[in-house]
Structures are given as structure tokens and as C-alpha cells.
Specification:
3 helices, Arc Repressor Mutant, subunit A, 3 strands, about 80 residues, UPF0270, YheU family protein, alpha+beta
Length: about 80
């Protein structure tokens, strides 16, 4: 199930930021985030928020394993918006 962008706006800022950080960390396999400063991470979070707003990234809730994750819209098999 796709979580609509407007529903994400009602989340606590820290909750949404942590979800985005989890997505960002999953995109980097070599651990290079440890070398980024706080400003760079905040800039990346803002870029992800913009991508969520534009529909490039989507938040998907999996009822099967009760998990939530950010995915690129091309990586969602059954896109339901």
C-alpha cells in the first residue's frame, strides 16, 4: 500500500526524518555516511523530501511483513496511487 504524500506531512518531523535516513543509509553500502557532516545529511533529507513531494520516491507499507520503506517509484511493482 502506498502512503500518500499528504499523509506524510502529518508525521512528526523526527519520524519522517528517521524514515528518510534509513532509506539513505540503505542506499550506501560502503558506510560513507560516517564521513558526512550534519549539514550534508540535512541537505540530503531535504532532497528526499522534495523527491517524495514530486512522486519520484514513494512510501510503501507492506501489510505482509508490517514494514514501511521508501522506494523509488520504478521499484514498486504494483503501483497504486
Amino acid at each position: 500500500m502506498i502512503i500518500p504524500y499528504h499523509a506524510l506531512q502529518s508525521l512528526d518531523t523526527d519520524t519522517l526524518n528517521n524514515l528518510i535516513k534509513e532509506y539513505l543509509f540503505s542506499q550506501v553500502e560502503d558506510g560513507s555516511f560516517s564521513e558526512l557532516n550534519q549539514q550534508q545529511i540535512l541537505a540530503m533529507i531535504q532532497q528526499c523530501k522534495q523527491a517524495l513531494k514530486q512522486g519520484e520516491l514513494l512510501v510503501e507499507y507492506s501489510e505482509e511483513d508490517e514494514s514501511i520503506a521508501i522506494r523509488h517509484h520504478k521499484n514498486i511493482v504494483n503501483l497504486q496511487t
